[in-house]
Design goal:
This protein is α/β, with parallel strands linked by helices. It has 22 helices and twelve strands. The strands form three sheets. The protein has a six-stranded mixed beta sheet with strand order 6-9-10-3-11-12. It is elongated.
Length: 588
Amino acid sequence: MKKLLRFMKHYKKETVLAPLFKMLEASFELFVPLVMAAMVDVGIKNADIPYIVKMGMVLVALALIGLATAATAQYFSARAAVGFAAELKHALFEHIQSMSYPETDKTGTSTLITRLTSDVNQVQSGVNLVLRLFLRSPIVVFGAMIMAFTIDVKAALIFVVTIPALSVVVFGIMLVSIPLYKKVQAALDKVLGITRENLSGVRVIRAFSREEEEVEMFAGYNTSLMYIQNFVGRISALMNPVTYIIVNAATIVLIYTGAVQVDEGILTQGEVIALVNYMSQILVELVKLANLIITVTKAVACGNRIQTVFEQPSGMKVYTEEEAKEAARILQEENQAEESKTAKVVFEHTNLCYPGAGADSLIDIHVAVKKGETVGIIGGTGSGKSSLVQMIPRFYDATAGRVLVDGKDVKTYQPEVLRDKVGIVPQKAVLFGGTIRENIRWGKEDASDEEIWKALSAAQAKDFVEDKEGGLDFVVAQGGKNLSGGQKQRLTIARALVMKPEILILDDSASALDYATDAALRKSIKELDSDMTVFIVSQRTASVLHADKIIVLEDGEIAGIGTHTELLETCPVYREIHESQISKGGAN
């Protein structure tokens, strides 16, 4: 939590002024019981109306000054807390964006969303309350005790006993509740995770009539969260009644002691009233302090959870300019094959193992792809097709061997430079809320309408976009819910094409297209740019039929490389896939 305070550096003035104005407000508040005592002992006792009016005006003045200082303190504390939260969210979001696929997979989307929203809001509330009350409450508590000593030492001893007793209760409850609040936030992560999963998969749930089972599962997670929240809530709820009991007991003792001393002429009635007022002030401030501690406890727990995200190191090293040059020099000096030096993309005896996996997903992949070649990658489910192409833009790093692009190890590229060379269409077509034009411009921010239409035409999407109301201004719902699967896939292909990448990766991105549209798409991409190196990942031999080179994968290893005709003769795996699809009428 302490490390997060660096985001307060632009609000140093506010973090100083807010507590100072609160201290000023507390100072004026401590004078109120003395003014009341004077009003009783002098004004009321002597029936001195002018004196009573004068003291009343003093009370009004103290109230107005207190209001002004409190409002000023509130302004500065709110400004500091909101600004701190904004900078924290920005930094956290930026860090999440810099995390590689393995880190985001490990942490989980629902957990990251909770950190970025609920946890940050709790920390913001904690900062706001600390700036307002952290100094004010102790000043009022100890100030009231000191003022009580100026009135009467014997009566003030009651304060000396009461305040430590209250401190034990407050801090004891805090120490017990801090670890419990961590469990509450962890349970909230689970609820958020199951909610997100159900909302994103609502169509599948309904298709298989699993609504009741999912409701029961959600109820289980939600009930667990409820129980732990109730448990920690009961502990926290003890704070107010216990503090009231202690303070009210102290007030009874104080009134009794004061009554005896008034009867003996040691204290005046006004001084007893002042002492009772000071005890009431202590009660109010300790209740505020108790609430502050509860909020700060939550904020600290949430802050520590946020810090764990910041402390999660990126598994992918980004080379400095000097390190990249040194790596390039070493690569040049190595005895590389001529093919590796001239090829556009090279996999050099590459292995890939996902974090926590028991075995490698890819084993000893060695292949070179020339500039302008179209490469098909085919294999059964789980054979490693997507894993192979995801190493090119460095979504995952090779755990052995290396991947070269233009003769340079992908690890030596700055991520943005490497990914400017690569256009990728992922398996799952993802569109964002906004117009078709805005979605296509994700590929190229300054793309003209002419470039967009050209990309749509190449992606076989021009016809259906023209039929939409507004054309390029047609509003796409979040996730593309108002488009069919084939339409979404074609728009994502157009989004990749508009950037005119040197390397285009189509990761099973035509699965929702019919064979004629798929063939027209591949033909138009080839005509679009003859220098573009294209990787087509598919489970259909018809999609890779005319590729310059086809890589056949089986259980993460290369089972064969060649053209369609060559593989039919030499690769049993490819022949089996092809013949099974012919028998189903899937290829010709």
